[in-house]
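Help!! Second protein's tokens look totally different from the first
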Amino acid sequence: MRLLLDTHSFLWAALSPELLSDAARTAILDPSNDIFVSAISYWEISLKYGLGKLELEGITPEDLSEATTQLGFGPMDLDPSDAASFWRLPKTGHGDPFDRMLVWQAIQGDCTLVSRDGGLAAYERDGLKLLR
């Protein structure tokens, strides 16, 4: 299975795995699964860190790239065609642009999005596979 971690799932996997659900932790630890972290998540972390809306204990956003490699996760770049076709993602009540792009990347990349964000369930009717 291909898993795309949303931003908080990535931070939890890297820094506080006990915060992940049992299902998410099991899927992430399963060596038969491919785990990805989107460039969108790094951007969101960096932005929120720079604004003082996110605290990281003893690390900076730049350190997370190495943590990704150490955890065996792969990077997922933002493909220009995904960015250009993002307008096709149906509008729901979920307004966070970072989460919406992660949803679109998961749908386009045939990934299961790992997220505890209940607002994303509305996208399951549009093809999103979600692991809470």
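Here's the second one for comparison:
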Amino acid sequence: MHPSRSSLVAMSAAAFATVALAAAPEGGASSRTEQVPADLSVPSGHEVAFTLAAEGVQIYACAQGTAASGWTLRAPEARLYEEGGRAAGTHYAGPTWESSDGSKVVGTKVSGATVDADAIPWLLLRAESHAGVGRMGGVTFVQRIRTAGGVAPDGGCDSEHAGAVAKVPYRAVYRFFRAAAAPG
């Protein structure tokens, strides 16, 4: 008997999440020692609360006849996974991260760094708003690291293709930070 396509996708996601998170310790100072560009450093007084792997697409639209002609990012669309591959939520326009418990955090880009020319940049985002009660409550910053893929297409955006949409596969690891507990 052969496994179904959906079970193969689930096994692939589980394998990715396990590999992506293997070197992503939870909480504490040790998780801040990874080589992250200085521009993406989270301010002191914040610590890693949890880390999730993401697998999905970056959605680009072909814009023509504007000051921003070419492929422009419309939104991410990704599933979030715990270590071991358990589904943990989704990531979509905003940028928004929504936990399986229904809580959400929306971020605003603080800075970015291109670590690999073949992958979308690593980012530091500040939490701007929260919704729901749960895991995403109290998140102060989000780092996008260990990116793979997701870069806008090199060509194919011309006047004949205005309005075209391209969905480019990507993977990343997101680290969610909260204000550090006061020593007590």
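Reply: Different proteins will give different token patterns, so don't panic. The CA atoms of residues 10 and 85 lie 8 Å apart.
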